[in-house]
Amino acid sequence: MPSFLSRLAVAGTATVLAAGLITPTTAQAATRPSDRAAALRWTALGDSYTAGVIEATGDETDPRDGCARTVESHPEIVRRDLGSLVDLRNVSCSGATTDGVDVTAQAPLGRPLPPLGTDPNGPYPAVPPQIDAVDAATDLVTVGVGGNDLGFAEILKSCIELGAVRLGQGTPCKDKFDASLPDRFDRLRNGYDRMLTALHAKAPSAKVLAVGYPHLVPENAALCQYGNLLQFGTFTAGDLGWARTALLEPLNALIAGSAAAHGDTFVDLYPASAGHSVCDADHWLDGVLTSVLPLEYAVVHPNATGQAHTAALVENAVLGG
Is the pTM of this model over 0.85? Predict the structure, then answer.
């Protein structure tokens, strides 16, 4: 049994004893603070898909440092589910790239996301590289990052603007960005490999879970209604199909390949979230907006339901070995 699972199993046994499933006297003796197994030390790293950010994933957690971690983000759900079995340090941060995980400080933008408005509590001080929350005693690292390395926000904004100009026709966003994708993916590949190498160096005994991205765009882009801000706004159908096959699916493949090369576990969100895209009736991700009245921004992020499904897959990967 891997060492991190051994610790989880022992901690779980202590929790069961503390719950009184044996006689109280024995339970008290078995779970004295000096004897109790340490909880699994877990550090959650990642971007806004990990942090939560949007109002549809609940209130922000404390301390509010501009990273916009929310109470219904998947690390916080797993923390509640596993209780005393885990000791979580959640340092995920909206806008994070692989560099922000292992190399550079990040200037967090807060909530809501610019350019839609500025956080009234900002500006915020820079936060250190997320890897600073990892050390040799860390048992588990989860990391969900990569979209910002490719420029997801820039591409999303441009696709909406160009689609409006073209009145929903053609593939103006593909025409603008397609030629730049090989270089963007090369940079991400190098950054992801460097990041995983750094994480293993910092926490050599830790299990690392590399979390992918969900099914944002349906297989049939015609399901998306042009101009609907609860979906992709003025994205053209052609650009939506391009975004799925040229951006999202290769991104997940890159993360899976890098994780495998490092002996890590890839948590694949894509198959389970098929049929639950931004444009599906039972959608686990919200579009440009979560709602019009009241006005709530989402900028294409998982809602609480999507975060809960991610939590279940992460939890399975933690408990499954």
Answer: yes
